[in-house]
Design goal:
The complex is a heterodimer of chains A (447) and B (106). Chain A has 447 residues and is an alpha/beta fold. Chain A has 11 helices and 26 strands. The longest helix of chain A has 22 residues. Chain B has one domain: Alpha-Beta Plaits (2-Layer Sandwich). The chains are: A alpha/beta (447), B alpha+beta (106). Bound molecules: flavin-adenine dinucleotide and iron/sulfur cluster (2 copies).
Chain lengths: 447, 106
């Protein structure tokens, strides 16, 4: 009998799982239920839609032909309950759906703000395409926006609204941007970039209330007593995995749905992948969440293999992300610690999009820096390997160092030299990274 | 896995025995010829978030994003090596690199 595979969620984890199932089992029955009625789209691309850098149709991830070939049973509906014993889910509109294997790929949702006036018309967030459309509509009529929060999304909101011609005030609760990942000099580069684009930064400021104009936003009142007249308040204070279904069904849930390295949840035949999944670290046993596109792809793929009973190990190499922050391309990879020791970022109440909790691991070893007017490079060198790096504004160094971290290349030959000449340590590492990568490339070419 | 990074490796090394492609300016005709001779647009699937900016900005409408998803190089003979996709990519997932057998397999 054909196995019935059911996937909940039409994000990149769900789509990748569906494609993997089809690729490995051409005859399988694959049903994908998603609440969003749009064609599959790139969620990170929403930032560029907002900024006006591309039209909406460019966000579509697959062509009509590709989708036809995938032969998915795609339902636009909301799953309201999971009944693991009965092996079925309940849909808002279509009754029940039985499964043999189920994948929960329900992603994450922005945390709602709780300041007084948070529910007024004009307080917005950026979760999906509907939000982006709504924001664009509002931005056309608005002149001034206040942005609060942290991580990549807050900056993307500030940059996007500024690109749309709005005056943007960005409120930071602490002294600097993204203190839980970046060092002070790195935050500074982002802040300078934002200021250069015309965004006005306010440090040590928080929203204490939003002034109501017949249900609409009229102004923001801040902790220092300032009143900022505005029509929009854009909020990005972190995201939470959408775990409600799993929790109500009695699955083991921490912050995300707890899964093992095979993406299995605590319920038989139920798997989870993407933003919603919380993986256990094989070394420390601690649960870790990623809110990363690349992790969602890798997990969607591995979960599909597990659903088919094929053992394909999940790639657990150091996590990497590349973000554009204040116009500066920023690569974060491996263990980079928590900024200057501040594990908490006052601007975020939960993990940000584009963030991995694995970055917070304390890097063992020594940090080397290289700084210029438009770039910042930080490499953490452990006993034998480069364990983590933050590279801003230098594509070449970013690729080379990311290669060293992810490949786990032995750099101990450089060891004493690095310490003797820390000024040139980063350059030496970059050169080694490029050479090593090329060696790998020619080895593969010969093979 | 992770966009098939296992067999491709993250990023692309710039060959040392050929011109330094990163420093060539595709806007200059001679540089572009040099680029076309030995190089092509290479992609890093781990850095790509499938935003579509490359496709939107390619004057020929080539599917750069599709290549980036699978970590394949743009070996399409029509590619002008104009560098528009490389310049517009917000994630530095694209770059000119030596044509190497490593990325040429689909
Ligand atoms: C503006 C923005 C910028 C980003 N930038 C980056 C970046 O630079 N780098 C990076 O790595 N990541 C970035 N991300 C994060 C990245 O997009 C996510 O990590 C990734 O999309 C997660 O995919 P997913 O499939 O797990 O979940 P999602 O894409 O969130 O998809 C989940 C889907 O499930 C649906 N769903 C949920 N519950 C139900 C239900 N009960 N019934 C039916 N359907 C349901 C939702 O409607 C949604 O469509 C960004 C995200 C945003 C929004
Ligand atoms: S522009 Fe860059 S990140 Fe966006 S789809 Fe193209 S290669 Fe990927
Ligand atoms: S180099 Fe120019 S022609 Fe070639 S793929 Fe990029 S944008 Fe298109």
């Amino acid at each position: 009998m054909t196995r019935r595979h059911v996937i909940i969620g039409s994000g990149i984890a769900g789509l990748t799982a569906a494609e993997t199932l089809r690729e490995r089992d051409p005859g399988a029955s694959v049903t994908l239920v998603g609440a969003e009625a749009h064609p599959f789209y790139s969620r990170p691309g929403l930032a560029y839609l907002l900024a006006g850098a591309l039209p909406e149709r460019q966000l579509e991830l697959r062509t009509k032909e590709e989708l036809r070939a995938l032969a998915l049973d795609r339902l636009v509906d909301e799953v309201t309950a999971l009944e693991p014993e009965a092996h079925r889910v309940r849909l808002r509109r279509r009754g029940v759906l039985a499964y043999d294997r189920l994948l929960l790929a329900t992603g994450s949702a922005a945390v709602a703000p709780d300041f007084p006036g948070a529910t007024l018309d004009g307080v917005v967030q950026l979760d999906g395409l509907d939000d982006a459309r709504d924001l664009l509509r509002r931005a056309r009529r608005a002149r001034t926006a206040v942005v609060v929060g942290g991580g990549a999304t807050a900056v993307e909101l500030a940059e996007g609204l500024a690109a749309r011609g709005l005056t943007v005030h960005y409120l930071l609760r602490g002294a600097r941007y993204w203190a839980s990942v970046l060092e002070p000099a790195e935050s500074q580069l982002v802040e300078e970039g934002l200021a250069g684009q015309g965004t006005e930064l306010h440090r040590h400021e928080r929203v204490v209330g939003v002034e109501d104009d017949r249900g609409r936003v009229r102004a923001v009142h801040t902790s220092s007593g300032a009143v900022l007249p505005c029509e929009l308040v854009a909020v990005a204070i972190g995201v939470r995995p959408r775990v409600e279904l799993a929790r109500a069904a009695g699955l083991s849930v921490e912050r995300g749905i707890a899964v093992d390295a095979g993406l299995r949840t605590s319920a038989p035949d139920v798997f989870a992948a993407g933003d919603v999944a919380e993986l256990r670290d094989p070394e420390s046993g601690a649960g870790r969440c990623d809110v990363l596109w690349s992790s969602a792809v890798a997990q969607g793929r591995a979960a599909a293999c597990a659903m088919l009973g094929e053992a394909e190990a999940l790639d657990l190499r150091p996590r990497q992300n590349v973000m554009r922050l204040g116009g500066v391309t920023t690569t974060v990879v491996g263990a980079v610690g928590a900024g200057d020791g501040a594990a908490e970022d006052p601007d975020l109440v939960a993990i940000a999009r584009g963030d991995s909790e694995r970055w917070r691991d304390r890097p063992r070893g020594q940090a080397f820096h290289d700084r210029g007017a438009r770039f910042r490079i930080r490499a953490h060198v452990g006993e034998r390997t480069v364990v983590g790096a933050v590279v801003m504004g230098d594509a070449r160094a970013a690729r080379a160092l990311a290669h060293l971290v992810r490949a786990g290349t032995d750099v101990s030959a450089l060891g004493a030299g690095l310490r003797a000449d820390p000024e040139h340590a980063v350059a030496a590492l970059v050169a080694l990274g490029e050479a090593d990568e090329q060696k790998g490339a020619s080895r593969a070419a010969r093979a | 896995m992770d966009g098939h990074a296992g067999d491709i490796g993250p990023g692309f090394a710039l060959a040392r025995d050929v011109p330094d492609f990163a420093l060539l300016d595709p806007a200059l005709p001679l540089d572009r010829l040099r680029l076309l001779a030995g190089a092509c647009v290479r992609t890093d699937p781990l850095r790509c978030v499938q935003c579509g900016l490359c496709n939107y900005n390619c004057p020929l409408g080539l599917d750069v994003r599709g290549h980036a998803r699978q970590g394949r190089s743009i070996l399409e003979p029509r590619c002008l090596a104009c560098g528009e996709c490389v310049r517009r990519c917000p994630r530095e997932a694209l770059g000119f690199g030596a044509r190497s057998a490593r990325q040429e397999a689909p």
